[in-house]
Amino acid sequence: SQPAIDSLLFRSGRVEWPIGCAYASCDFVSSHFIGAAILLLISESAGQAGCMQALGQIELGQGNHQAARLDTERGLALFQGLGELDGQAGCLLLLGQISLAQGRLENACEQIERSMAINTQVGDGNGEAQCLQMLGHMELSQRHFDTARARFERALLLADRFGDQILKASCLLTLGQID
């Protein structure tokens, strides 16, 4: 709908020019806002959910935690309505990151553990490893070294199994700092 498009364009902080039924955009952030607006127009739920999740990630990076939470929760609700577990896991992990950025450690832990449970259920070892890594960092911040070590060791095994060299290197680096 046009009000939804206008709202997304306003939130992007840019003036966009209509070109046919889409809008011209010259930067990554605006393209996500425009993509979400177009998907709202055509009522494509999976695409809308993915755009809302991407917007949440962008807004988290900008330090706009309230907007990040709102958009990510919208994406999560859409993914839940579709029964799309991978999307739900991604949104829950992002909500955990947002809670962590807001200093809400207990909420962050609960959301990340929910994401990890879904990743385990669907067999996404890489997603599970990312959750373990985040939980490990949270344990380190509380000086729970043994628990942190166990989480990083498990994440390392999964990262190695699924070929995620960056995550593997990150886990090895952190494990070296714990010992």
**Helix segment tally:** 9
Instruction: Give the oligomeric state of the chains in this entry, treating copies of one chain as homo and distinct chains as hetero.
Output: single chain
The unreliable regions are: 1-28
Content of β-strand: under 5%
Strand count, sense and closure of the main sheet? Answer: 2 strands, antiparallel
Question: Order of strands side by side in the largest beta sheet?
Answer: 1-2
The 3D shape can be described as globular
Helix vs. strand class: mainly alpha
Radius of gyration (CA) equals: 18 Å
Mean pLDDT: 82
Provide structural commentary.
Helices cover 80% and strands 2% of the residues. The protein is built from nine helices and two strands. The chain has a two-stranded antiparallel ribbon. A hairpin with a 2-residue loop joins strand 1 and strand 2 (22-23). The model is unreliable at 1-28 (pLDDT under 50). The chain is mostly helical.
Task: Provide a compact summary of the structure.
The chain has 179 residues and is mostly helical. It has 9 helices and 2 strands.
Characteristics:
single chain, mainly alpha, two-stranded antiparallel sheet, 2 strands, 80% helix, disordered N terminus
List the helices and strands and how they pair.
Blueprint: H1 2-12, E1 18-19, E2 22-23, H2 28-42, H3 45-61, H4 65-82, H5 85-101, H6 105-122, H7 125-141, H8 145-161, H9 165-178
Antiparallel strand pairs: 1-2
Helix pairs in contact: 1-2, 2-3, 3-4, 3-5, 4-5, 5-6, 6-7, 7-8, 8-9
